[in-house]
Amino acid sequence: MSELHFSPGLDGVVAGETDIACVDQGVLLYRGYAIEDLAENATFEEAAHLLLYGELPDAAALTAFKQRLDGYRPLAPEVVDALRLIPKAVPMMDVLRTAVSMTGHFDPVSDTADLRERSVWLTAQIASIIAARYRLLNGQEPLNAKPGLSHAAQLLYQANGQEPDELHARLLDLTLVLYAEHEFNASTFTARVICSTLSDLVSAVVGAIGALKGPLHGGANEAAMEMLTQFKTAAEASAWIKDALAHKRKVMGFGHRVYKHGDHRARILERELRKLAASLGAHEWMAIYDAIKEPMVNDKKIYPNLDYPCGLTYYLLGLPLDLYTPLFVAARVTGWCAHFMEQAANNRIYRPLSRYTGPPARPVPARAK
Ligand code: SDX
Known about the structure:
By secondary structure, this protein is mostly helical. 57% of the residues lie in helices and 3% in strands. The protein contains 16 helices and 3 strands.
């Protein structure tokens, strides 16, 4: 067999073409708009519209988009019943995987092939599922949406039963913009592979949720915060990171396959995190955060990815750890759906080769008569 090129983890392999996003000289672009610009000037709804429709919405299109999101927020009673039945100890990412699959049986737009409409419906449903489960875990009944709130404010309202303050809503909205899309990451690639067999959108999103859960991918925001919660002081964190690096342990929230000189998104969010921490007097938390970050950057040249500042941001916003990766899903579902539609529009089934390393051909021993 000719020497086939094998790249572990498809590192450096171009596995498809996309006009949805790219990382151009270290800067992430959503359909040509730099993430810094979008973080500064766009809401999650505008970024979601850009990903799903190809353009930023004008005022009328934005109003219509937000109204359709609101219209799709109510959960089928059967989905709420499923949320009640799932044991309390089940992690929210596993609940989300099940509930998205369940809600797919009650999809009001399934009789149309309008993938874009189903994408809007799924985006609304995922936010409602997260909020409903959160309330059930706290012994409260799910809340109906309050029309007119932003997607971020709505999620917090339906979870907590009160409208969030402007800072909390804006920071959550910023994380949703930053998390929404990132070209051929593992969960998006999963969604594209599922699409490439001509399977359906809900199956692709459920598969992508499974991929995102892993701590090497989206689960890193929870894992990074879990790491930080073990320290009471910066000195403890410094001792820990020294030992971790000496034993070549993976430090969650750092490193990236694509960004080798730092994740632009992390720098954007870290600026806001530092302001939030200062406003809360959370100086010790930032000292712990920096005690881990500095040796990683200065000694190892391994930089924070978005998950590192995001974990502490969500923590300081008072969100429970179990919600962090689900919030990543609430944003990334728009990227997954955009890639599903792109793959479906110009499809070839994914079927890579493998390099065989097993035993050579050999005969089955004759059966004893
Ligand atoms: C996300 O792909 C995307 O776009 C993902 C994402 C998105 O928006 O979709 O950006 C979201 O998933 C961000 C990544 C979140 N995961 C983590 O924070 C988990 C910790 N990070 C690592 O596991 C790792 O950095 C990856 C998985 C992110 C990247 O893996 P690679 O590209 O395969 O890099 P590697 O594991 O081959 O590391 C190269 C070297 C190794 O050293 P050597 O074995 O060559 O001596 O760098 C070291 C690694 O040990 N290294 C780390 C490290 N990351 C890399 N060492 C310690 N801690 C780390 N976090």
